[in-house]
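Dear H.,

Thanks for agreeing to be a second pair of eyes. The structure we're designing against is below in token form, covering all 135 positions.
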């Protein structure tokens, strides 16, 4: 598998592999305890993965993110089935629900499938499609 060295994910990871091999997964770049913590806690995963998704934006912690992550993790663990997240704009609800949570779930359960819908699909697709390195 060849690596696109202009891919923002590869650049953010700071990895360069002259052989063109695939970059190692997060388990190779984090110590085993951190990796285990990321697999157990969505909140910790978000903190560790923030710089990859938003490399030019400072991560700001807040109780709202704790609440969102706890509820999303409760869905993953089967404690709740439905969730409606109502927080003001720019409080990371779209990133948490549409980017970090699926990535975290795919790490824990690679067979998981997702279906997304949005009230404003054009704006949603433009925002998150621009962030995706996959064409």
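And this is the sequence the design step returned. I haven't edited it by hand at all.
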């Amino acid at each position: 598998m060849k690596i696109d060295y202009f891919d923002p994910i590869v650049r953010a990871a700071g990895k360069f592999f002259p052989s063109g091999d695939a970059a190692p997964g997060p388990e190779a770049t984090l110590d085993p305890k951190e990796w285990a913590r990321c697999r157990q806690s969505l909140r910790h995963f978000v903190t560790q993965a923030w710089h990859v998704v938003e490399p030019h934006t400072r991560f700001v912690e807040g109780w709202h993110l704790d609440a969102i992550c706890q509820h999303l993790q409760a869905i993953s663990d089967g404690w709740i089935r439905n969730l409606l997240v109502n927080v003001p704009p720019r409080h990371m609800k779209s990133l948490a629900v549409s980017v970090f949570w699926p990535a975290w779930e795919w790490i824990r359960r690679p067979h998981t499938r997702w279906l997304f819908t949005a009230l404003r699909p054009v704006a949603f697709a433009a925002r998150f499609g621009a962030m995706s390195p996959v064409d």
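Two observations from my side: The two ends are 16 Å apart (CA to CA). The chain has a mean pLDDT of 76.

Warmly,
E.
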